[in-house]
Amino acid sequence: MNSKQEYIIEVKNAKKIYRMGKERITAVDDVSFSIKKGEFCCLYGASGSGKSTLLNLMAGIEKLSGGQITIKGHNIHKMSEKGLAKFRQNTLGFVFQSYNLLNSMTALENVELPLVFKHMNPKRRRKLAKEMLINVGLGDRIKHKPKEMSGGQQQRVGIARAFVSNPEIVFADEPTGNLDSKTSREVMDIIKKMAKANKQTIVMVTHDPNLTKYADRIIHILDGKIQEITEIKSETTLDADVSDIKQTDENFKPEVLPAGSSG
Ligand SMILES: Nc1ncnc2c1ncn2[C@@H]1O[C@H](COP(=O)(O)OP(=O)(O)OP(=O)(O)O)[C@@H](O)[C@H]1O
Hints:
Elements: H1 3-6, E1 7-20, E2 23-36, E3 40-45, H2 51-58, E4 66-71, E5 74-75, H3 81-91, E6 92-96, H4 107-117, H5 122-135, H6 151-163, E7 169-173, H7 181-197, E8 201-206, E9 217-222, E10 225-231, H8 248-251
Parallel strand pairs: 3-8, 3-9, 6-7, 7-8
Antiparallel strand pairs: 1-2, 1-4, 4-5, 9-10
Bound molecules: adenosine-5'-triphosphate.
């Protein structure tokens, strides 16, 4: 079997040691696992177990102390800064616990942002961003700024922004960490629907056992190590109805213009 075809992310003996003066903290301790394309994978564990560090290593945000991580066959920790930035832009989307929206911009402008970085034609990117906001149920809030929206609405903008450029992989770090349980379910349903509609791979960090039911696979982390990996049979995974989600595959035909030409 060609593992490069089978797995989109491969983590081999990943290690992260933080040095705090004389103290060494092993946040990720010799961790190996692989994630299949289209899989919803959950990194689950208690606070301080190393989940976020592991996610940040997988996204190339933190540097490895040892081991290697490949995404689509590329050793991301061997890439140049520029190469990695480009790779992230083309392949990865991010959803953060604290939303990380730009407060001075409207919902629409926030969602457009990844497409601005891709130098997409303004008309096209506005159309795509609007469609994404409609997909997440915010068609009537496109001109609102983050402070004029609820936490759940802000996170839906965050999801629209993460998915608008149709990334193959979306990393989500405690995406519902600041939300109540009902809003959390709504947000998780949207993430699941989006990913399913476009066969995207999701890697989500959570300490909340209620959220693990959305995953195809749960990687249990304890003290920086994998404690166990639970495969969830597809019949028991919380499935989402994707009929009302517009497939970005169809819509996303970026008209990439040279830098600076989009006005
Ligand atoms: N920049 C850093 N410098 C030093 N130690 C760090 C740093 N970041 C994380 N750590 C330590 O690494 C360990 C793992 O932290 P990490 O944030 O990955 O855990 P987590 O499971 O995501 O926790 P939480 O759910 O609370 O966010 C912790 O002991 C933490 O104190």
